[in-house]
Write a structure and sequence with these properties.
Length: 106
């Protein structure tokens, strides 16, 4: 039974670490850019768009499609960064149990 007790303690520690990681994820913000920084946006850890900045030089008639493409590209950049940050936080939280059968893959 000593092994079971040890395993239960490890599970409780991992559960605590996962809760801490989720709290850090909620506070996380990442920035995505495109067009050489002409479009910048910030995504929160939840994936919510928190901020969007568009260089005024893009605000001319006929540039709508270009602006739309740059916003999509900036979002994709931020999403990649957010996914990587989330995966890293969860790997840290899972510790030695990361990758074991039955554990989520990050």
């Amino acid at each position: 039974m000593k092994d079971l007790s040890s395993l239960m303690k490890q599970a409780q520690v991992m559960q605590q670490k996962l809760a801490e990681a989720q709290a850090r994820l909620a506070e996380l913000e990442v920035e995505g850019t495109s067009g050489g920084g002409m479009v910048r946006l910030v995504l929160k850890g939840s994936g919510e768009l928190a901020k969007l900045d568009i260089d005024e030089s893009l605000m001319t008639p006929g540039e709508g499609e270009v602006v739309a493409d740059l916003v999509v590209a900036a979002h994709a950049d931020a999403k990649r960064k957010l996914d990587a940050a989330q995966a890293e936080l969860m790997r840290e939280a899972a510790g030695p149990l990361a990758g074991m059968p039955g554990m989520p893959k990050f």
